[in-house]
Design brief:
One of its GO terms (cellular component) is cytosol. This protein is α+β, with helices and mostly antiparallel strands and 701 residues long. It is built from 18 helices and 35 strands. Strands 13, 14, 15, 20, 23, 24, 31, 34 and 35 form a 9-stranded mixed sheet that branches. The chain has a 6-stranded mixed sheet with strand order 3-2-1-4-11-12.
């Protein structure tokens, strides 16, 4: 990696649905000389504008940047909204409808009117050719070249340039797919082609086909965006390399991102998990649930020993699996911009619809008229009327918006506003349970780490509902994902199918397979600018009991494997299976299914002592004084809550609720029963009184 020069910024920028956040630091050899933070409204019509606005607000000249790390939701949004140039798909005869038929399971078992999401590629753009590869890699039926040429000509006639090639059994051999790619390039020389045997050579065709289709869909979307961003930065005088945050918790060069756009699906939230790794190294917290509440969504990810849990089959939508290794981040439509509404049964609902950045909540005064979570917080007196100095919020507009749902429900504006907050927080708590109890972890053993501009507003209520009694708010709250991005390393995962019963496997063959993956992974890292001596490699095997339909990720030693090592692997598999599912058996035979090698560079992180000096409490200089008071409502009662400025709180000072702690990019709410202290690094620790939890009914009476 490039050695950093003094006075050059390492910049992280995360573009979300409502806000674009920036965190940057400058120094040398891990020290920090300056820190810059900024939060601006996103510009959905062109995210590049919001990106550059964040730099401008932070006072950072593009020529002062040494490295840029960027988290973006552009790929996710394009897929969900189906806003991409539709690609063509070429597959084996008989498998044209695989991505539409899917697995035939039901999202809601007893819903006779359920409608599956529309396929990413419509049937008219899916073509078939005669060919078949055997499960052992042998050719059962050669690729019919003439049929291939006819298909290529049809695709050319339709003006399609982004194409997915997905043949059955290509995970074991990609010869036929490569032949088909060559045929297409003869007819369409400038085509961008995604080949399933290279995208993810893993068993089971639905996941492999869907992941390859996603890559083909995103080629033009991500490619165009990254090219425009690179050009804009260069024209502004920036000579720094651009890295894009990956969904596996690492980053890659922008050039690689253009070729592997499917790895950007959870790009933005992954930065928050990287920040969690940094928190682990600073405070020694092993069990954390990282949460991020922005304007549009709520994300949660469980971390163990500083590492986020990984999933191998993330679903973009129901039965749309993406089989790249990804951080197990659960997202729901619950944020500051989530809209409150009344369903057909007359019940109050919140989200997943969002007012976004434009027009935004009603109180933003930009034309929004729907009642949102932000409007409810303002009416309850829990939100600074200037949004931490960004702009003046319109209280009357917020009241008028909430009246649209309070009056039909027969509630006062205050009662309805508390109901909106209660429902939104319960929805967030459900996401907490998904990342913890769904994977065999007890949320009561975790520390709730709150990120996002709206995170501090809801952290106490969400943690209380989920049964968590420890809350941590970092000093970079509100720009957490961008802060985490600046601590990331380059990371790649390389996988290959290796189906074999553990008792029958040849250790030499297993070692050879891992060594090939290690070489491929090393080549990718070097291509992204990582020096070979800075590369760390880890082995993982996806394993299962014979007959199971799912796998468990199992660590494998980084050495030449032998019979004794296989026993160690079997023991570790049983441990991991028990951790995930609560049971294991030493009697059932075990099988390898997929091998994975994860390679990463050495992460560049600031030293915690230097960070504490910049962002921590001011000690003797802090006034410890209440900066003011504000009328606010909790549980139907009016309080006069104390106001504190975060930079005027001393280390160890206890703050008792009801109170609000103002932060440049967030507002932290302490209900009457809550208390908080700040540590030497600027982290705010909040204790949760679980006995004080009230019901929704009590909240609105």
């Amino acid at each position: 990696m490039i050695k950093r020069r003094k006075q050059m910024y390492r910049v992280g920028i995360d573009v979300g649905g409502t806000f674009t956040d920036l965190f940057a630091w400058v120094g040398d050899s891990g020290s920090i000389g300056k820190v810059r933070m900024a939060k601006v409204l996103s510009t959905p019509e062109d995210p590049v504008v919001g990106f550059m606005n964040a730099l401008s607000k932070a006072g950072i000249a593009p020529s002062e940047i040494e490295t840029v790390i960027h988290g973006t939701t552009i790929g996710t949004n394009a897929l969900i909204e189906r806003k991409y140039p539709e690609p063509a798909m070429v597959t084996t005869a008989g498998f044209r409808d695989t991505i539409e038929i899917k697995r035939q399971s039901r999202h809601h078992l007893y819903d006779p009117y359920a409608v599956k999401p529309s396929p990413l590629i419509s049937r008219k753009q899916r073509f078939t050719v005669s060919e078949k590869m055997g499960a052992d890699g042998s050719t059962v039926k050669p690729l019919n070249r003439e049929e291939g040429l006819q298909v290529a000509r049809k695709i050319a006639e339709r003006g399609i340039k982004n194409i997915a090639i997905c043949f059955i059994n290509s995970y074991v051999s990609g010869r036929h797919e490569q032949e088909m790619r060559d045929i297409i390039l003869e007819v369409i020389p400038d085509a961008k082609i995604a080949v399933s045997s290279e995208t993810r050579p893993k068993i089971r065709e639905l996941g492999r086909f869907m992941t390859t289709a996603i890559r083909a869909c995103l080629f033009p979307v991500v490619g165009d965006y990254v090219v425009r961003l690179e050009k804009t930065l260069q024209e502004a005088g920036c000579k720094a390399p651009l890295f894009i945050v990956k969904s596996n918790g690492g980053m890659m060069r922008s050039q690689t991102a253009k070729e592997r756009p499917e790895e950007l699906i959870e790009s933005g939230p992954a930065g928050g998990v990287a920040a969690g790794n940094f928190i682990h190294s600073m405070l020694g917290l092993n069990n954390m649930i990282i949460t991020d509440v922005g304007g549009t969504s709520f994300e949660a990810c469980l971390m163990e020993n500083g590492q986020g849990l990984v999933t191998d089959e993330y679903e973009l939508e129901w039965e749309m699996p993406l089989i790249t290794p990804m951080l197990d981040i659960r997202s729901i439509g619950a944020g500051g911009g989530s809209i409150a509404w009344i369903d057909e049964g007359g019940s109050l609902r919140v989200g997943p619809q969002s007012a976004g950045a434009d027009p935004g909540p009603a109180c933003y005064g930009k034309g929004g008229v729907s009642p949102t979570v932000t409007d409810a917080n303002l009416v309850l007196g829990r939100l600074n009327s200037t949004l931490s100095g960004k702009f003046q919020l319109d209280y009357d507009a917020a009241v008028e918006a909430i009246e649209k749902v309070s009056e039909p429900l027969g509630l006062s504006v205050i009662e309805c506003a508390e109901g909106i907050i209660e429902i939104a927080c319960e929805n967030m708590a459900d996401a907490i349970r998904m990342v913890s109890t769904d994977r065999g972890r007890d949320p009561r053993d975790q520390t709730y780490v709150s990120y996002g501009g709206a995170g501090g507003l809801h952290a106490y209520k969400v943690a209380q509902s989920a049964g968590i009694n420890r809350i941590l708010i970092p000093p970079f709250v509100g720009v957490d994902c961008s802060a985490g991005a600046t601590t990331m390393n380059v990371r790649h995962d390389v996988e290959g199918t290796f189906y074999a019963a553990l008792l029958e496997v040849d250790p030499a063959e297993l070692t050879k397979a891992f060594e090939k993956l290690e070489k491929d992974c090393t080549d990718m890292l070097v291509n992204d600018g990582v020096a070979p001596e800075e590369i760390n490699l880890e082995r993982t095997a996806l394993m299962r009991y014979v007959g199971q339909s799912y796998e468990v990720a199992t660590p494998v030693p980084n050495r030449i494997l032998d019979e004794e090592t296989l026993k160690e692997i079997a023991h570790e598999f049983n441990n991991q299976h028990k951790l995930e599912y609560g049971v294991y058996s030493e009697d059932f035979p075990i099988a390898f299914v997929t091998l994975r090698v994860t390679g990463a560079s050495q992460a560049e992180q600031p030293l915690k002592d230097h960070l504490g000096k910049i962002l921590g409490p001011k000690g003797e200089k802090a006034s410890n004084q209440i900066s003011g008071q504000r009328e606010s409502y909790f549980n139907g009662k009016k309080y006069l809550a104390d106001l504190y400025e975060v930079d005027q709180i001393s280390k160890g000072q206890k703050i008792q609720g009801p109170a609000f702690i103002a932060h440049p990019n967030s507002e932290i709410v302490l209900p009457p029963e809550a208390s908080a202290v700040i540590d030497e690094y600027g982290f705010i620790h909040i204790s949760v009184n679980k006995e004080a939890k009230i019901t929704m009914k009590e909240a609105v009476l």
